[in-house]
Amino acid sequence: MTTTETVAARRSRTRLPWLLAVSALLVVLLVVSVTVGSRDVAWADVLAALDGATDNVGQAAVAKRVPRTLLAVLVGAALGVAGGVMQGVTRNPLADPGVLGVNMGASLAVVAGIAWFGLADATSYTWAAIGGAGVAAVLVYTLGSMGRGGSTPLKLALAGAATSAALSSFVSAVVLPRNDISGNARSWQIGGVGGATFDAIGHVLPFLAVGFAVSLLSARSLNSLALGDDLAAGLGERVAIARAAAALGSVLLCGAATAAAGPIAFVGLVVPHLCRLLAGVDHRWLLPFSAVAGACLLTAADIAGRVVASPGEIAVGIITAVIGAPFFIYVVRRQKVREL
Q1: Angle, nearest 10°, between helix axes 179-190 and 102-117?
Q2: So where does this one cross the membrane (predicted)?
Q3: What mean pLDDT is predicted for residues 167-185?
């Protein structure tokens, strides 16, 4: 048995234990997220708050922390899976909803909808965000595919960075003349889960559910696409349909997550790379790993933001940027991508 086969066999035996371990870590983080913050909360207050009581400050704090924790889990899982799918669809190790400008496309659509079209409810925000994410994804892939050699990781990353910068400028141009929405829009652009409510979560949950389902059902197709389009077609895969279906799942996840929490970058870049160390390249395992690990990362970032800046807080979008930017540079250097 070769070294590669030995590593693959060992990894296949350890996947389930690792998935259970990461899931256990998520449970621990959920407990910490509810009990720890600018004010630590006793278990008696936690249990009372879960029954609907808000008689004291501790119980009121738990009542606010539970929905924000749930939102952090959902958004982190969505961005982790979306990043794994995007990397599989494009065969690009640098693919990420933030790096490729997809999140910023969703942001521009929501802000423009609020400022110019009177969007006022969470469901309309979600539809606008999904539409904007889809348009941005198509635009970036088209720009990154131009020129000699078609799409390459670095060309897609550069196209995404340029598109993201342009869309961010458009967002500022829309927001600045509108004092009535500028304050909320600026804080939302940073990305965070503070102020989450069960009603807001309920509006985006159906979109997230469909996005998760489509993405997970695309796992086998992504494994075929990883072999190359010609070989995938030879194995009976409908390449264009498989790529479009997987991309649709990632766009749904990105759009819904951005509508709920703002444009949070780098989760979709960091998480799939780390999960490949545990799960390998099989997307049937990689995507569930990415969902749980993404939830862990964003929940931990939310906890860190509340603890480090207590009694205030640092938005999770800032925490993930601090973690993700150096990792992005590391991936670029490790892949040694030189072709423009």
Answers
A1: 160
A2: 68-86, 98-119, 125-144, 156-176, 196-217, 285-308, 314-332
A3: 82
Tell me which residue of 125, 87, 84, 82 sits closest to 106, measured CA to CA: 125
Which pair of tokens denotes residue 264?
């949070």
Instruction: Tell me the domains of the chain and their CATH numbers.
Output: 24-335 (1.10.3470.10)
Whole-prediction pTM:
0.90
The mean-pLDDT minimum among 72-86, 175-189, 259-273 falls in 175-189
Burial 9-30 (b: 16+ CB within 10 A, else e): eebeeebeebbeebeebbeebb
Both tokens assigned to 34: 């509810």
CA nearest neighbour of 106 among 250, 259, 245: 259
* Ramachandran class of 264: left when φ > 0, alpha when ψ lies in -120 to 50, beta otherwise: beta
Q: Which tens digits make up the pLDDT trace of 314-335?
A: 889 889 988 887 887 777 676 5
124 by Cβ neighbours in 10 Å (0-12 / 13-18 / 19+) ranks as: middle
For 76, 100, 175, 195, 254, the CA distances from 127, given in Å and listed in that order, are 20, 20, 20, 21, 11
Q: d(Cα 10, Cα 19) in Å, to the nearest integer?
A: 15
